[in-house]
Amino acid sequence: MTQVFEPAKPIWCAGCGDFGVQASLQKALSETGTNLNDVVIVAGIGCSGTIQNNIPTYGYHSLHGRTLPSAIGVKLANPKLTVIAAGGDGDGYAIGMGHLIHTFKRNPSILYIIMNNETYGLTKGQYSPTSNPGFEGNVENGMDGILVGLGVPSTTFLARGFAGAPAQLTRLLTDGLTHVQSGKGFAFVEVLSPCVTYNDTYKLWKNITYDVDSDTNFNPRDKIGSYTTVINKREEGKIPIGLIYSADHPSLEQVSVDDQEKGPALQDISLASNMDRYEAVMKTFLG
Amino acid sequence: MESSRTTVDEDICIMVGGQGGDGSLTVTALLAGLFRRRGLNVYSSRNVLSRIKGGHADGVVRASRNNIKCLGDHVKVVVAFDEEAVLATKDDLDPNATIIFDSSAGELDPKLVDNTVKIYNIPFTKLILAEIRRELFKNSASFAVVGRLLGFPDEEMLQSLNSRYGAKAAPILENNIRAFKIGLEWAGKNGLTAADSTSPNTVDVKQKLLMTGNEAVSYGLLVGGVRFFAGYPITPATDVMEYLQKWFPKFGGVVKQAEDELSAINMALGAALAGARSVIATSGPGLSLIHEGMGQAGAAEIPLVIVDTQRAGPSTGLPTKIEQSDLQTLVYGGHGEFPRFVLTPGSVEDCFNIGRLAPNLAEMYQLPVIIAMDLGICQNTVTIESLDLHSGKIDRGKRLTAEDLAKMPVYGRYSFTDDGVSPYTVPSTENGRFLITGNEHNEFGHVNTDKLNRVKMMEKRSIKMKSALKDLPRGTVYGDESSKIGFIGIGSTYGVILEAMGLLAKEGVSSKYYKPLTILPLEDAIGSFLDGCDEVYVVEQNQSGQLSNLITLKFGRHKQLHNILRFDGNLFRPREISQRVLQIREKQSAIVH
Questions:
Q1: Would B213-384 and B476-592 be classified into the same CATH topology?
Q2: Interchain contact, A40 vs B427, CB within 8 Å
Q3: Which of A233, B119, B275, B400 is the most buried (most CB within 10 A)?
Q4: Using a CB-CB distance cutoff of 8 angstroms, which residues of chain A are in contact with residue B276?
Q5: Cβ–Cβ of B446/A262 closer than 8 Å?
Q6: Domain ranges of chain A
Q7: 3-state class of B548 per DSSP?
Q8: Contact between chains at A267 and B393 (C-beta distance less than 8 A)
């Protein structure tokens, strides 16, 4: 068999939450029976943006903040692929925030794993869009990606996992993969993934996470209920984790790609097989 | 009143102008259609402001038996919905011109123009408001008058209205025809009687294609196998998105309108690495935003075609006006160093051919291929004989199938090769998994900072510029090859230079012209062209002579290089160039003697 790239050893510090994310993702890929030849992982820039090097799938290291447009391009070109976007809170919530909102709006069947450590680890610990006031001189309140997602009418899958709760994380990623593989649209999974070097939040997050999956009164199909729970829990100083919201909406590739089998990527573009149609277009320029 | 019908002897240029929304461009489009059906060659342009309604707007259509490729120098007929339109064209007016003036607000002051100019005062707006109550139909009334003046039979004009409005809601067609008939009536009152069906204008009946550069480049891209487009609406690039949107459904293609150009170029990169031939088109500020993505295509070796429809910058600049001022940033822009090609179509045929070739080049050499258009070539309409669909080929470069891979012991996405081009796969190819990254990387795509590897990878990428020389489009020499007076110019200066050369020939000055098609890597043929000239005129629509700077940097300063530059947002006129040359030559000979 042809030798291709060997998966790399992760570059992360011992104890980094991203190890847990990678382990859960690999389990989820295996549980869904996904053929790794049909998977493209599009990663951002940052510590988390190296995850694609460690897993034997197709991998693309995109520009900082441009993971989602890149992943959308891949998905629209070939809807049959399983497309996973992965990056950090800086990549997704700062430089890439504009794209995130438009991705909720478009609802492409892409699994997006955003590894949130509330800091910029790779550049040595500056505050990030999710940092709390007081962290490294931060004076702004942190923002919440789940609330952003709830604010967009076509959002279909919002979940938050915790690297310190691996069983649940594996289940959420498996559900996310199932969501995208059945063409239901954008699966957004934020993972609380502590940076042990610059912002070690394992203990804190263990104490303040609130698991909506084990709340029998919580219904993820009820948007108002989800909103209320997220806002109330945040006001109590808690971070909700679990499947927070799910809904149905046509996916981007369903409404944009006429040829779902081949997509633009696998079209026969030979002159011979297109000539009749090319000539028909040329006729439109005649008087 | 005495009739004085204007016919197309050799060449005629008609300007229709008023406020945006007056329908001037519709009249020029209708006239262009009529001329073309007569077998005449047509060139037309539009001059609008960046607003939906209001502000001066005009369309110019030129028709000729000759093979015209620019607007020419003199306007022979003006249809003006206001005085501003007359003033806008005053300097270009032929002494024996005819003006059809909307006199609703008063007759045109004859002192505004030479007394040899004939003026028809017809109150179009008043007439149409009184009869139809919607001012917007007045352009069809003016069409009737100008059509009669030009000798088109009423029936022929009516047919063109039918084909333009036939598909629209019935009242639109009806009202345009009512307005047209009012126009005929007033043409008659002014002595412009109906022409018979055998108009003297007819040349032959061979059907010609009427295309803008944007249409031609889009069509070339389609035939070149492009099946993915992402973009953000921006003048004058939006046309490309709209044409592909119209055609793609029949070809399995996808157009995605993105939230900004950052997103657009990254979508295109994603689609390209998934295996679709991908293109983006942008202009002005959008070009600045895509530079990061352009570098990514260069470093990560992702095939991408970029169409830059240059307009007047910097910043928002003059969004609807021509300039060729992006050349430097297309050649040098972006951080770091990466390979790319910059191609410069000059004719509509070039736009098609380069549009068709660029996707091949992108995949064969896995880098960004930039098509540098300008607003003039993008938007102006030209008649052409035909486009040869059969001469092209599709070359996907070193794209590997699962069968190819099965014969290879090792596959690394960035493997070192003699020509710098590595074999590539697309996702879902069995055993073809890759890592693609803009970080410096080793042959397998793993991030790598080793200094030897860095140098080798930089060399691998840059050598592609040399490997591609055999496949890049080359320019053409026009005119008298034995002449020692040479022109160089790209894009929409092409047609103007050709016509200026004709004017110079009449003055006894023979000249030649090199139209380059590839400015990065800059064609070696430019060097030999310079060697064969005693004096060189580089004609450009920018302030600093960007093309001539690129030429000088590579070939050294030519002993007699003169820049002819225009950056007021308007296209060159042929006489402007020929006169500049004559002035410069006069000055030079004064120095010599």
A1: yes
A2: yes
A3: B275
A4: 77-78, 263-265, 267
A5: no
A6: 17-257
A7: helix
A8: no
The confidence band for B47, taking pLDDT boundaries of 50, 70 and 90, is confident
Residue B4 pLDDT > 70, yes or no? Answer: no
Q: What ipTM score was computed for the predicted complex, to two decimals?
A: 0.98
| Count of beta carbons in the 10 Å neighbourhood of residue B587 | 10
pTM equals 0.96
Shortest Cα distance, chain A CAs vs residue B561, angstroms = 40
- Contact list in B for residue A60 (CB cut-off 8 A) is 270, 273, 435-437
Averaged pLDDT of chain A:
97
Mention every residue, 6+ apart, whose C-beta is less than 8 A from residue A217. none
Of B178, B436, B406, B490, nearest in space to B298 by CA: B436
Task: Choose which CATH entry (3.30.310.70, 3.40.50.2000, 3.30.870.10, 3.40.920.10) describes domain B11-189.
Answer: 3.40.920.10
> For domain B213-384, which CATH number applies: 1.10.10.60, 3.40.50.970, 1.25.40.10, 3.40.50.150?
3.40.50.970
CB A154 within 8 A of CB A105: yes
pLDDT > 90? residue A186: yes
Of B99, B65, B97, B93, the residue nearest B81 (C-alpha) = B99
What's the topology of domain A17-257?
A: Rossmann fold (3.40.50)
| Res. B54 pLDDT band, cuts 50 70 90 | confident
For the four alpha carbons of B388, B389, B390 and B393, in that order, the dihedral sign comes to positive
Q: Is A285 in contact with B36 (Cβ distance < 8 A)?
A: no
Structure tokens at B63: 């028709």
Q: Domain residue spans in chain B?
A: 11-189, 213-384, 402-470, 476-592
Architecture of domain B476-592: 3-Layer(aba) Sandwich (3.40)
Q: How confident is the model at residue A280, as a pLDDT?
A: 97
Tokens of B17: 């102008």
The lowest-confidence range among B139-143, B189-193, B587-591 is B587-591
Helix (H), strand (E) at residue A110:
strand A110-116
- Which pLDDT score is estimated for B196? 72
Q: Is the pLDDT of residue B204 over 70?
A: no
Cβ contact B254:B279 at 8 Å: no
Backbone phi, then psi, for B483, in 5-degree steps?
-65, 155
For residue B403, report the phi and psi dihedrals to the nearest 5 degrees: -65, -45
Between CA B375 and CA B359 the distance in angstroms is 22
Q: Report the alpha-carbon distance of residue B70 to residue B496 in Å, rounded.
A: 5
Q: What is the mean pLDDT of chain B?
A: 94
Owner of token pair 């919580």: A218
